[in-house]
């Protein structure tokens, strides 16, 4: 038994000596590691992703309360107006039609604005938009009324641009013709907000108006799996749109703007969930998670994968994203993937249209 105890004591002593040596070696190792750590710089931080993949989406003011006044107050903006067929207006339009021009009015005072409403009897065709513009507005800004050619209510219009040059106000409307039209006669047009200072010639007179219209032919029926150039739209936004036209259609300033490649690329982020890439002053890409911006075929964020397939057929390419969602991409002429739908749990969470380099 004593022999066992002695053996244990020797073993314990030997263990203590080994432990002391190990402790010394460990201490030296720790000191060395701390010294190396002190000499090293902080770990590099990965650069932020530009642009962010999923910007925050906020509800535009007034959207959450139906019926609330959501009138535009600061140019540039444009909203549609409507009214009954107007015989006197038709005569004024006919006189300009031979010159390829549309009829319009520049309004720079409350009196002129009220007189125009009374004369032509139009009303706002935008939900939440009133016609209440008074002295406070006209102190710095003006309104431009543009009347489209009166005719069938099935013909649709989109405001293009209103640009003040040195000698005139250049305005463009887009006319979308239906495959089958109605026979009724109605008034349609737009009211655009402009900066007042840009409307006058050096002699103080108003600049003349040059209002033209470009016509978009009706989209003929094609197989669901054929993507066309007309499909590259989301809501009232389309690729190849000039930056100035984009300002009028958004009717709001971007929440954030980022420039890249020495200004060659301009990324605009709007609070209503719209992301836009502009290259050389032209819209190159539109992306949104907002259901208020449907495709020309009626597809929107929140629709099912089944609806996507019914409207566009099978995707030509599938890609799993880093967030686990699946990107369904559709090509044009079998070459370029220009329309994309991001799917999560069989539901569309983002739509995108773009051009190709």
TrEMBL record:
Keywords: Signal
Composition bias, Pro residues: 43-59
Signal peptide positions on this chain: 1-40
Domain of life: Bacteria
Annotated region described as Disordered, given as residue ranges: 43-73
Keyword Signal attached: yes
Name this protein carries in UniProt: Uncharacterized protein
Organism: Acidaminobacter hydrogenoformans DSM 2784
């Amino acid at each position: 038994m004593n022999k066992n105890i002695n053996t244990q004591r020797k073993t314990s002593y030997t263990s203590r000596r080994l432990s002391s040596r190990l402790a010394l070696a460990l201490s030296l190792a720790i000191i060395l590691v701390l010294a190396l750590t002190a000499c090293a710089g902080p770990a590099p931080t990965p650069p932020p992703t530009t642009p962010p993949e999923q910007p925050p989406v906020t509800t535009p003011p007034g959207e959450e309360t139906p019926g609330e006044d959501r009138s535009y107050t600061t140019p540039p903006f444009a909203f549609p107006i409507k009214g009954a067929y107007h015989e006197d207006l038709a005569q004024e339009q006919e006189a300009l039609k031979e010159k390829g021009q549309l009829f319009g009015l520049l309004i720079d005072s409350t009196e002129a604005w009220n007189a125009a409403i009374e004369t032509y009897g139009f009303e706002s065709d935008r939900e939440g938009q009133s016609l209440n513009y008074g002295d406070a507005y006209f102190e710095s800004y003006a309104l431009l009324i543009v009347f489209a050619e009166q005719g069938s209510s099935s013909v649709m219009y989109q405001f293009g641009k209103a640009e003040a040059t040195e000698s005139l106000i250049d305005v463009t409307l887009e006319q979308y013709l239906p495959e089958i039209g109605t026979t009724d006669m109605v008034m349609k047009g737009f009211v655009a907000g402009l900066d007042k200072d840009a409307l006058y010639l050096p002699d103080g007179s108003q600049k003349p108006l040059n209002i033209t219209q470009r016509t978009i032919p009706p989209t003929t029926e094609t197989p669901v799996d054929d993507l066309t150039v007309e499909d590259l739209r989301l809501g009232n936004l389309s690729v190849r749109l000039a930056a100035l036209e984009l300002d009028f259609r958004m009717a709001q300033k971007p929440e954030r703007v980022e420039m890249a490649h020495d200004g060659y690329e301009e990324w605009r982020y709007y609070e209503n969930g719209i992301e836009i890439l502009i290259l050389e002053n032209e819209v190159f890409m539109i992306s949104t998670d907002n259901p208020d911006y449907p495709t020309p075929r009626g597809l929107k964020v929140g629709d099912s994968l089944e609806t996507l397939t019914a409207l566009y057929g099978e995707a030509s390419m599938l890609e799993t994203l880093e967030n686990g969602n699946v990107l369904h991409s559709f090509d044009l002429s079998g070459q370029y993937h220009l329309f994309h739908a991001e799917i999560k749990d069989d539901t569309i969470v983002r739509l995108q249209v773009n051009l190709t380099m």
